[in-house]
Write a structure and sequence with these properties.
Elements lengths: L2 E6 L3 H12 L4 E7 L2 H10 L4 E5 L7 H8 L7 E6 L5 H9 L3 E4 L4 H12 L2 E4 L1 H14 L6 H5 L4 H11 L4 H8 L3 H14 L5 H10 L15 E4 L4
Helix pairs in contact: 2-3, 3-4, 6-11, 8-10, 8-11, 9-10
Length: 234
Amino acid sequence: MMIHTLIVDNDMLFRAGIRMMIDSSSDITVAGEATTGLEALDMIQATNVDIVLMDISIPQLNGVEATKKIVDIPNCPKILILTSYGMDEELFNALAAGATGFLLKDSPPEGLLTAISSAYNGNAVISPQLTNKLVEEYTSKENKVSPINQALSKLTDREREVLELIGLGRNNAEIAHELFIAEVTVKTHVGRVLRKINARDRVHAVVLAYHAGIVKPDGGPDSDSVFYGSKQSA
């Protein structure tokens, strides 16, 4: 199945570079390009788009405001925010607004293509270089994360194992394989974990897992690659 992408950036050379990377793939194509948030909204409603690759600082609706409007569109595409600056206020807000994830603009071609495919399949995408900043930004903004340790005490041993694997970016099938349980059982555990720790989704759960020390930043098995974790609520 072909994945249709929309590149949103007001830098013509950068758009050309992204297009070249995508053109090297046999199952991903560029459906269009836009230079502003408003153009992106128009194209999404007029064109078949699965993934939006969007710069955070585009004019006429920046990445945050554009994300808020895109997620309100029925059957909206997934949104990957691209940034040159690392984690900042706007990037955090875009994630909170409903972006599927974010990548640094200097990510290698294979990392970008894998991120697009992963986002298309319903996964969250987070550059590991930005994970520490995400945790710092989140904890500085929400004092509510402090009760996470109290919430953890409500988890069963199995639910804690599931949370740890979520924090490492495992999807349901991978968790089932590692714990030798059925995938439907994993889905049940994930739902209970999210409710007990009051996480909006699995990206939120990842942040809480890092903050609580269940998962150590950059301590995963492949810390130089892009982190992928299912964003589905269960």
